Amino acid sequence: MGWDGAVNAWHVAGGVYRMGRREWLTASGWQQAHDDGVRTVVDLRHPREARRRDTDPAVSDDALTGVNIVVTPTEEPDDPRFTAVCGPYLNDPAHYLHNVRLYPKKLVDVFRALAEAATGAVVIHCAAGRDRSGMVAAMLQDLAGHPDQLIADGYAKAARGINERYRTHGPPHDRERYMDDAELAPLLEMRGRTVVEFVRELDTRAFLLRHGLQRDELSAIVRLLEGRNRP
Question: Which of 74, 92, 106, 219 has the highest CB neighbour number within 10 Å of its CB?
């Protein structure tokens, strides 16, 4: 997506998009997203991550008029159960299944926020727009009935997108780095298969219903994925 300032912004399906930190968007970017129908932003980060950095554009509250921000974290980053299986943060699709099994209620809350977006398109985002967003996006693609290759491609596009950001702006910390294509391509092929294995083992629909999402909420999400709630 070409929203000004947006990093790693992609269309997922129907009325759903994904991206990196919302603080990267300029006022013009917010207007462009609004023009594309975005009315809800679902922030998957822990609340302490949601803060402006000195390098972020200055954006007034007026720029977000008509856009509802919903914070629904997918994890508890200080939970030793989480760090034991996922490390300091989620950065590998091999850990997605651990994440959803540790926090099924949190994932249901994310999807409930999507169901409650009665009008307009929705953007899901985390920090890099790669793994927390990738986990939820893969689940949404599963609900949308996307084939394996499209789900794998969704992860690869986001991983390449943030890798390019690291090339031009540098990584945010020493646990991330830019990779050239000779290193990145085989890694993405393997991780693409892992993302597909994740959703096929999970069975998103059954998982969400088993953990408390209501059938009418699931129907609302399907309508969103079909693009049937545009403003």
Answer: 74
**Measuring CA to CA, which residue among 75, 112, 78 is closest to residue 215?**
112
Residue type, 188: L
CATH architecture under which domain 10-216 falls:
Alpha-Beta Complex (3.90)
Q: Tell me what pLDDT residue 224 has.
A: 95
DSSP-assigned letters across all residues of 94-119: GGHHHHHHH-HHHHHHHHHHHHT--S
User: The tokens of 63 are what?
Assistant: 């720029």
Q: Distances from the Cα of 210 to the Cαs of 107, 182, 199, 213, in angstroms?
A: 12, 42, 15, 7
- Contact between residue 117 and residue 40 where contact means Cβ atoms under 8 Å apart: yes
**CA dist., res. 8 & res. 2, Å (int):** 10
Contact 162, 128 (CB under 8 A): yes
Predicted TM-score (pTM) of the model is 0.95
- Could you read off the pLDDT of 99-147 as tens digits, one per residue? 999 999 999 999 999 999 878 999 999 999 999 999 999 999 999 999 9
**Residue ranges for the chain with pLDDT beneath 70:** 229-231
**Given this model, what pLDDT does residue 86 score?**
93
Residue 210, class by beta-carbon neighbours within 10 Å (0-12 exposed, 13-18 middle, 19+ buried)?
A: exposed
Cβ contact 148:6 at 8 Å = no
Q: For the CA atoms of 67, 12, 15, 220, what is the dihedral angle to 10 degrees?
A: -100
pLDDT for position 230: 64
Going 105 to 121 to 162 to 93, the CA torsion angle's sign is positive
Q: What's the rounded Cα separation, in Å, for the pair 60 and 54? A: 15
